[in-house]
Sequence to fold (66 residues):
Amino acid sequence: MQRGTTRLKALRQLIADEGLTIAILAAVAAATVIAFGFGAEADIVASMLIIGLVTALAETRLRSGK
Fold:
């Protein structure tokens, strides 16, 4: 039980981090520009969102030193 609580607290702290929020918003903005500006297919937009979210999470974890 303690392990699960610790992980939930870590997840809450990760989501509350301002850097992660900005990085995710940047990924969504880039995908929006690609989708509507260039008329890209849905699979390209979805892959851009996934890559952006994974990059944002990796950057946040690396900066936090975990």
Observations:
- Residues 2-65 form one domain.
- The mean pLDDT is 81.
- The CA atoms of residues 27 and 55 lie 9 Å apart.
- The radius of gyration is 15 Å.
